Amino acid sequence: MHRLEYRGYDSAGVGVVTAAGGLRVVKKAGRIANLERALAGARLDATTGVGHTRWATHGAPNDRNAHPHTDASGRIAVIHNGIIENHAELRARLEAAGVEFASDTDTEAVAHLLRAWLDEHADGTIAAALRAVCQQLAGAFTLVVVDAEQPGAVVAARRNSPLVLGVGDDEMFLASDAAAFIEFTRDAVALGQDQVVEITRDGYRITDFFGAPAAGKPFHVDWDLAAAEKGGFQYFMLKEIQEQPAAVAATLSGHLINGQVVLDEQRVDQQELRDVDKVFVVACGTAYHSGLIAKYAIEHWTRLPVEVEMASEFRYRDPVLDRQTLVVAISQSGETADTLEAVRHARAQKAKVLAICNTNGAQIPRESDAVLYTHAGPEIGVAATKTFTAQVAAVSLVGLALAQARGTKYGDEVAREYDALAAMPELIERALTVTDQVRALAGEIADSRAVLFLGRHVGYPVALEGALKLKELAYMHAEGFPAGELKHGPIALVEGGLPVVVVMPSPVARPTLHQKLLSNVAEVAARGARTIVIAETGDRAARTLAARVLEVPSAPALFSPLVSVVPLQTLAAEIALARGFDIDKPRNLAKSVTVE
Ligand code: F6R
Description:
Blueprint: E1 11-18, E2 23-29, H1 32-39, E3 46-54, E4 69-70, E5 76-84, H2 87-96, H3 108-120, H4 126-134, E6 139-147, E7 154-159, E8 164-167, E9 172-175, E10 187-190, E11 195-200, E12 203-208, E13 217-220, H5 236-242, H6 244-252, E14 256-257, E15 260-261, E16 265-266, H7 270-275, E17 278-283, H8 285-302, E18 306-310, H9 311-314, E19 325-331, H10 337-348, E20 352-357, H11 363-366, E21 370-373, H12 386-406, H13 411-422, H14 424-431, H15 435-445, E22 450-455, H16 459-474, E23 477-482, E24 499-503, H17 511-526, E25 530-536, H18 540-545, E26 548-552, H19 561-578
Parallel strand pairs: 17-18, 17-19, 19-20, 20-21, 22-23, 22-24, 24-25, 25-26
Antiparallel strand pairs: 1-2, 1-3, 4-5, 5-6, 6-7, 7-11, 8-9, 8-10, 10-13, 11-12, 14-15, 16-21
Helix pairs in contact: 3-4, 6-12, 6-14, 8-12, 8-16, 12-13, 14-19, 15-19, 16-19
Bound molecules: fructose -6-phosphate (F6R).
């Protein structure tokens, strides 16, 4: 459960079928530590059970609404991820039949429905009950269930929310993510859409919701426990920031074969790629920021128009999609509901979908026509760091693959860009050396009311990412703006002492843009702002003008976000730590957002 806590940490609970034959449920609001205290000294004499960490959707994060939920007599325990969209209707029906609810959740209805079905089917199994109940549910759900009267079995079902089976020796596991069981087995099976699985000590059986035999997707977990542990760092996030050179290197590795950029999976042919006449990039949050960077690279290299859109908005505005549209869906988890629905909408309109994902076999890559994996390894800190830089590397590969297919770049040009990308891990390594300076600066601005971030060109998405990291980790008001837009309104926010962080372009590679940014630094400094500039090593003009300079190594313009984002990630982490917050588990957030 600790390894899944990144998915939600409002409350935690367990429900086990005890050797004595009953069900024992213990659940507590807050972190798993509270549950551990409640369980201290308890002997859970059991061989089957369920455990859950919650990210609240329906019902406040208190003891009552924590999972598992049970039927009235406490025979069946249910845990759930997702949202049961028809829960109000199900609840009304159950209440009309005399059922009393003990929580405000959408989940509890499932426990009562299971019990009602079992009462009507004297010889029915809990697996059959779950199949029947799933047929009545709308929305997204992973459900895992135990029944005290059918010990030795655990049953689970999934629709639009992940579920992975771990196949051990004389033991079986079910979890949202293989991290939960890699200590015991690395042999796993990803359950498919609308499937039910029943596990017993020595086997498993998968069916669809109607009982027809079905198969999951077997895979071997290729990262080890050490990758999911802190390795000497106080926080996962600090470790993951340091892992960025390796994450980018692993993402690029093996993708240039005989001078050709190759993806991991490709179910579209070269002709279809050549026929693409426009590109949409859809993603959320940090992945959206990597999508904004993709626009600069793809348009520059391929001359294709690229639109970048927040996945949560995409399908609600009837975007113009057809067979010649390529939709690039970027998602670390591969299970973000907004992005998944955008993918489904695009495919329903016959567009081709290329997924960039960090999770092998997740739903988004499974439903896409082509896949490029970011091999960043497991990211446990809730704020995305190494997966962002890995995504920036991956979108660059996608741009090169498209340029190659369309003939807008010759083979040797593609190879040169690839080589420049392959040199980036070394530059990120050097960018990481500013950590001590950033820590000192963080202490100075940790009490500010707000922080503004400015950038132009690819520096603008970096500014947005710096602001997002600060909001989510330090709970400070932070905004990212295109530096040129500032004078059209936001400059009114600038007042004495306000920290303004500016992402400078290279004075050598982009002299005109650099000059414009210098003017913007001067404008805010003239109004009393405390200017902090992320600048290329040796940028004397920036050094003269700004109150503080954090230097990063010189890099090709399109790849420069890979280095300029590093001090901003560290700045947000250090400010949050200075303010006393847990940077791995920011309030109100969860790593995987499997609800819309
Ligand atoms: C921010 C963060 C989120 C995610 C977003 C998309 O640090 O982690 O903004 O980037 O929820 O998640 P994925 O990439 O899993 O689709």
